[in-house]
Amino acid sequence: MASTPTDSVPVGNPQAAGIIYVQGVPTPETRLTLGGAISVSPMAIGTWAWGDSVWGYKPEMFDDIAATWDTLQDESSGINFFDTAEIYGKGESENIIGRLLKKNRQEGKPLPIIATKFLPYPWKWSYPSSLLNALKGSIERLGVDVIDLYQIHGPIHLRSVEVVADALAEAVKLGLVKSVGVSNYSIDQMVRMHAALAKHGIQLASNQVEFSLLRRHPETSGLIAKCHELGVAVLAYSPLGMGRLTGKYTAENPPPSGRRFSNYPMTELSPLLAVMDRIAKKHSVPMSAVALNYTIAKGTIPLGGARNPEQARQNVKAFGWRLSDMEVEELDGVALIGDKGIFWQHG
């Protein structure tokens, strides 16, 4: 399943862009190619909780995050891909990753692939300058010369998709980013972005959407299939349902308030959790590994959160095996479809 980036990728030819999703058993050695430019593990670590008060972050938690980072730097983990955003902790997540990247350099360790995002608030009206200024801020906080994957965080920009695409293309041409993606884009928006970037000779690398056993909408709507058709990798955020699919929470012990994605009462999830628990025991893995393996089996790259080394080790247990077709079908039967939103989640 290993693949390497190509120097020249014919836009619109997904086969030339490389392998964008796992077609067999995900392993620590598996690598996927995004935008013909970066080679990533079949799972990423989402770092919203690194520095953001929404997740109760406090500065004294940095040591746990640093230990988590160190755990994942071990080659046996197989993970070389981290996702952040300028809005996470108002830049603090990027600052934290910048400190950790500096530590890698000092210790002579390889640098992982880093993805971040531009939040296109409607008042960010002037393109490409609004995007380029934000991009340079992310570069400074991360302490890098170039961003591996730069994404539009959501379809909330008042300017057209084509205007935003031109700004992304400018970032590529200036050598500030290696590849570009979008997040929360609908099928139509993603197709327009793909076509607009193609005019610049750039392959749209990814579309990041909420996808899990609690939100199958990107699959049932046809978005995942369309992404694959165009050579666009699907990054699945909140694959653990903001903790609801880890086995940590129950109807008697619900997750903290404020975890708005897939915000279903735990009482409604009992049938799903029962099936997950049985499958997890069969494969001798934690329930979180079942949730992550499911998203991989559906052709996506999950972004599993981890705030301590144990959570990181549990995520990695999604590697080395694959749900059977029968198990996937059984999970489909108890999973939730979810929906899209008017403002933020179009995909």
From TrEMBL:
Source taxon at top rank: Eukaryota
Annotated InterPro entries: AKR (IPR020471), AKR_Detox_Biosynth (IPR050523), Aldo/ket_reductase_CS (IPR018170), NAD(P)_OxRdtase_dom_sf (IPR036812), NADP_OxRdtase_dom (IPR023210)
CDD domains: AKR_AtPLR-like (cd19093)
Domain NADP-dependent oxidoreductase: 43-334
UniProt KW keywords: Oxidoreductase
Name of the protein in its database record: NADP-dependent oxidoreductase domain-containing protein
PROSITE patterns linked to this entry: ALDOKETO_REDUCTASE_2
Gene3D superfamilies hit by this protein: NADP-dependent oxidoreductase domain
GO molecular function, a single term: oxidoreductase activity
Pfam families: Aldo_ket_red (PF00248)
